[in-house]
Every structure is written in structure tokens, then in C-alpha cells.
């Protein structure tokens, strides 16, 4: 049975002891101040700090503190992480080591001194163009949702320039990831929702009726969030393009099709890629990502700056956007370490390797689905005869009806067996949705183990519901209050400090 480490870990401020140091620099603060004054002039007194309340800790205390905290965490390095729509695959550590090599380079260095880095960005753009069928990319966006915003701003700029004003609406399917309508709204669009048919694909009849002069474009991911390939994609493209409405491809699900199909060939005009899913940086965990945006040739002039170009002497230079560009959306050239990892991954895998990864991801997903769909209380919504792509969504509504327990409780109980929970309650069109994405990096044994654990938990729902209802029992933190768990972290920490102080006072009294 799995048991996660559980330390009653104090905050670094509580571990702090006056006078203890872990690291000293040969720098004299007075000299630093004088050097600063020489280059910047005198800093006004009201801007100078008298003191800085930092914890005072030895190096060993720091190492142990963070190691203990990491033991109370769960990651792809700990175990299976089938979080749907997140592609939590194993990412080669060597790519992290490569990313560390460039840690000392400053983004403000003149282009002449960072030719190697610019060449990496340039080559990565060529590779992404080949993989997606797009004609030009901006590497700048920092994540998927940021890429979506950039894409929507490009759609806006396209119609503004062509028709003298932007079109007001964007179509988003009811199965879409929440960031799609949010990004469209942030870019100033009104969102029109198109329904999913009973077979799990976009309702063409409804779409056709919605499209008019107000519709700027549509945002789609293919395969969609149900894990089904939009088989009518060519018809959707025809309907939209006939109206000069643009098609935006949410590339979060590229792991299903990379090396096999290209959004550009399907007819999409704009694509963002979640490099931090398909290309070797884990999604989740709050770390930096990269959501490069690719476009067809007619939209290249709208891309945000800077873009790396090769001049006539074969040197790499950063180019500012022209007058049609949507303008800067982030400082510098994007999250370089994430881009570098993606480039290293693409080179190491090669075209055939990437294609095989997609095929294995799809095979793993269908293998697991073939077992999971047999479980009592589990149903497969939408066309059950069609294979899914890299992920599948089953419904636990029947289980909820029969036992009172559903996706939430099952997800919590899985943690007791050392498995990360799948995505639950997304997409919104599936009742008690349970969305599993196994990825290509997991072995058959891991998938079989997941099935065994899940079938045990489903059995527990029928036979010992209280055990499931109160789960998890074996993790560092037990059942939490869902609302309080999303409390801003600083408030949670200050509440913890207060509680600890109160406990100490009570004990000493
Ligand atoms: C389908 C889909 N689109 C967009 C996004 C947004 O990507 P990001 O989290 O990088 O902003 C996600 C993230 O999970 C996603 O699954």
C-alpha cells in the first residue's frame, strides 16, 4: 500500500535563527551601495531599505527543508500522472541539463553575442512550421492561454485591417477548454457557443446557421477534448472560409497527431502549441511554459515581435514588428529554456520518433479505455464505436446514481494507491466526467496497474462507500476543503503562522 511522506514542516521563517548564515558573499554592502550611487546617482532616502526581513538559515537546514517538502509532493518522477488534457509524460532530464547551460545568458545581450541562441530559436521555428504546416511563428507567448490571446488579437487585426473594423464574435464549441472563451473575451470578442452532436463532433447544421458577417472565426482543438477527431473538419473549414472567418487551432492536443496530421493541412489559419505538453516540459506545477503561435502566410505580418530572422550575411537578428503587428505581448524572446528543451526533444526524437510517440499515445489511451469501459458504473459517452485519440473521457454518472459516489470521490481514493487523479468534471458536456490521458511514456504494466487500482476503487464504492468518501487516507494532506484549498497562498501561510503561534502560547500557558 502506498504511503506518502508526511512531515510537520515549519515555515522557513519559523526555522530561522538570528545570526545563522548559509552563504556569504565577498561583497561588501557599503561598496555595493557606493557603486550603485556612482552609476545611478544618489538613491532618494525614502527608497532605501533599513532592513530586509529574510530568514537566517544554514545551508543544511535549507536543503533538508526543501527535500522534506518535495517528499510531500507528487510528480511525474514519483508515479503515473494520467491528467487528461495535460499530457503529463516523462520528459528527458538531459533536456533540463541543456536548459541549465544557458542560465547565465542575459536577454538584453546584443544579438551578436548570442548568435547560438538565436539560431536555436530560428531552427525551432523551422521545425514547428514543418510539424504544423504553418508559414511563420512567433516564439514569444508564454503558455497556451497566452497563445490563444495572441491568436485572437491576430484575428481581430486581420478583419480590422481588411474591413475597417473588427468582427464582433468568435465561435467556440461547448466542449472547449475554458481558456478558449476566456481568451476570446479578453481580446474583445463576444463568444458564440456551437453544440456538440451526439456523435461527439461539432454540430455542422448549427454552425452553418451561426456563420454570418459578425463571425470573426472559430477556435477548435482537434482531436477535441472528448478525444475524438473532428471528422468533418474539411466541411467546417469550408463553412468558415466561405465567410472569410478564420480557424484557430488550439494545439494543446498535438500529442495525438504530431507527425501524423498537420493543422495547416486541415485548413487552420492560426495555431498555438503547448510546447510544455507535447515537447518536453511538464505542464502543471505553475512552472513557465511556451505557447508559440504559428500562422499562414497572409497573417505573418500581424505576429508579435521580436522575430528571429537570418540576414543576407547569414547572421541572426531580432526583427521588430511592422505597422500591422499586434505589438509586443511579452518581454524579450519568450521563455527560452522551454523553447530550448523543445528543440532538443525534436532533434532527439526526429520526425519518425515524434510520429511513433503520437501513435503510442493513442494506442495506450485506447488500450486503457477498452478495459476501463467494462467497469461497473462506468459509461462511454458519445459514439462508443469510434476509437479515441490520446485521451478518453468516461462518465461516472451511473456510479454516482448507484452508490452516491462519483468522479470526485474516485479521484481522491486513487491517491491512496499512489496514482495521480485523472482530470475530472471536464469537459463540461459530460456528466461526472473522468478524463484519462496515459501518454506514450507509460508501460503496459503501469496501465494495467492503473486499471487494477481503478477497478478496486469502483468496487469499494459499492462495498465500503465510507472509505472512499473520506479518502485520501495515505497522503501527506488528507481530505481538504475544496474552497479553502484555493485560498491565496500568502493568506494560507499567514493563517498557519498565526495558528502555530496560538498553539505555542497555549502550550506555554
Ligand atoms: C485543450 C486546452 N487548451 C488550452 C489550454 C491552456 O494551456 P495553458 O495551461 O498552457 O495556458 C489547455 C491546458 O490544459 C488545454 O488543455
From TrEMBL:
UniProt key word RNA-binding: no
Single GO BP term: glycine decarboxylation via glycine cleavage system
Record keyword Oxidoreductase present: yes
Catalysis: reaction(s): N(6)-[(R)-lipoyl]-L-lysyl-[glycine-cleavage complex H protein] + glycine + H(+) = N(6)-[(R)-S(8)-aminomethyldihydrolipoyl]-L-lysyl-[glycine-cleavage complex H protein] + CO2
Entry GO CC: cytosol; glycine cleavage complex
Keywords of the record: Oxidoreductase, Pyridoxal phosphate
Residue(s) carrying N6-(pyridoxal phosphate)lysine: 277
Domain Glycine dehydrogenase C-terminal, chain residue ranges per copy: 359-463
Domain of life: Archaea
GO molecular function, one term: glycine binding
Pfam families documented for this protein: GcvP2_C, GDC-P
InterPro entries named among the record's database cross-references: GcvPB (IPR023012), GDC-P_C (IPR049316), GDC-P_N (IPR049315), GDC_P (IPR020581), PyrdxlP-dep_Trfase (IPR015424), PyrdxlP-dep_Trfase_major (IPR015421), PyrdxlP-dep_Trfase_small (IPR015422)
EC code(s) of this entry: 1.4.4.2
Domain Glycine cleavage system P-protein N-terminal: 42-310
Cofactor(s) of this protein: pyridoxal 5'-phosphate
PANTHER family from the UniProt entry: GLYCINE DEHYDROGENASE (DECARBOXYLATING), MITOCHONDRIAL, GLYCINE DEHYDROGENASE, DECARBOXYLATING
Protein family according to the UniProt entry: Belongs to the GcvP family. C-terminal subunit subfamily.
HAMAP family, per database record: GcvPB
Function: The glycine cleavage system catalyzes the degradation of glycine. The P protein binds the alpha-amino group of glycine through its pyridoxal phosphate cofactor; CO(2) is released and the remaining methylamine moiety is then transferred to the lipoamide cofactor of the H protein.
Quaternary structure, from the entry: The glycine cleavage system is composed of four proteins: P, T, L and H. In this organism, the P 'protein' is a heterodimer of two subunits.
Name this protein carries in UniProt: Probable glycine dehydrogenase (decarboxylating) subunit 2
Species: Caldiarchaeum subterraneum
Phylogenetic placement of the source organism: Archaea, Nitrososphaerota, Candidatus Caldarchaeales, Candidatus Caldarchaeaceae, Candidatus Caldarchaeum
Gene name linked to the record: gcvPB
